[in-house]
Amino acid sequence: MATAKTDRRQRLKYSIRKKVNGSAERPRLSVFRSNTNIYVQVIDDEKGITLVSASSHELGEKKWNTNVETAALVGKKIAEKAIEAGISAVVFDRNGYLYHGKVKALADGAREGGLKF
């Protein structure tokens, strides 16, 4: 049985995905936040493939709790990888999470890294 918190996030996720769709020109930047890590993918929804991805695992730090600074570093890392792959503009998908704290820091880090959204 799912909790009320996960049900709420799932409803929000569906309503966001109705409006946000990634293409080859502007793929979708999708965020997933767990209790210990933060993950981000750049996805082409037309082909159904992940173009690039990054996570807090790649930073090499042995932190069990992802904080705002780590999320900003992950945002810069995904921007670096996306620009290497030839992607400069994306559509941001917050994936049902509030645009606050770690999610906002990740978005700001991606913008600082050179992605446009």
Automatic annotation (TrEMBL):
One GO cellular component, as annotated: ribonucleoprotein complex
Gene3D superfamilies given in the database record: 3.30.420.100
Gene Ontology molecular functions: 5S rRNA binding; structural constituent of ribosome
Highest rank taxon of the organism: Bacteria
BP-aspect Gene Ontology terms: translation
Key words, A-Z: Ribonucleoprotein, Ribosomal protein, RNA-binding, rRNA-binding
Role played: This is one of the proteins that bind and probably mediate the attachment of the 5S RNA into the large ribosomal subunit, where it forms part of the central protuberance.
Assembly and binders: Part of the 50S ribosomal subunit; part of the 5S rRNA/L5/L18/L25 subcomplex. Contacts the 5S and 23S rRNAs.
Protein family according to the UniProt entry: Belongs to the universal ribosomal protein uL18 family.
HAMAP family for this protein: Ribosomal_uL18_B
Full protein name: Large ribosomal subunit protein uL18
The organism of origin for this protein: Salmonirosea aquatica
Lineage: Bacteria, Pseudomonadati, Bacteroidota, Cytophagia, Cytophagales
Encoding gene per record: rplR
